[in-house]
Amino acid sequence: EVKSTIVTLQRVVKQRMTIKTHNWASSAHQEFHKIVREETFPIVNQVDARLQNFEIQFLKEAAKFVGDFKSLAKEADASLAKHKILELEIKRLLKAVVSQDIISIVQNASVVDTSDLQTELERFENCIIKKEIEYAKLWND
After folding, report:
1. Predicted model pTM
2. What is the number of structural domains in the chain?
3. CA-CA distance, 10 to 14, in Å (whole number)?
4. Tens place of pLDDT for every residue, the chain, 141 residues?
5. What highest taxon heads this organism's lineage (predicted)?
6. Residue 30 within a domain
């Protein structure tokens, strides 16, 4: 008896779940259609409107990001150009200082004896190394 009841229930459920053309006008179908029209459609429309708003906001933010990125790229290019100008100026000043040191050595005739030439050359090399270190410090700061 339980088995026959289960079979009957399965048949009834299957019958009710199947919508045939002859029962579309039924009150259950009309109630279902009313629920879909009054409750489901507004929710779908609301979700669609929110999605469209999200898409618009996303596109605005993306455009702002691109604009900001381009602006930062311009600033970086300008900064790089300034650094290159400073680097050239530092090199020019370094050459001027080294040239001045050479002139000072020659004018002061500090190399009296040729045996002192090696000592003066080493002093001059040390001076160049010192200036290069100063240049490197300036560049890294």
Report:
1. 0.41
2. 1
3. 6
4. 666 777 676 676 666 555 555 556 677 777 877 877 787 777 877 888 888 888 899 999 999 999 999 999 999 999 999 989 988 888 888 888 777 776 776 666 655 555 666 777 787 788 888 888 887 777 776
5. Eukaryota
6. yes
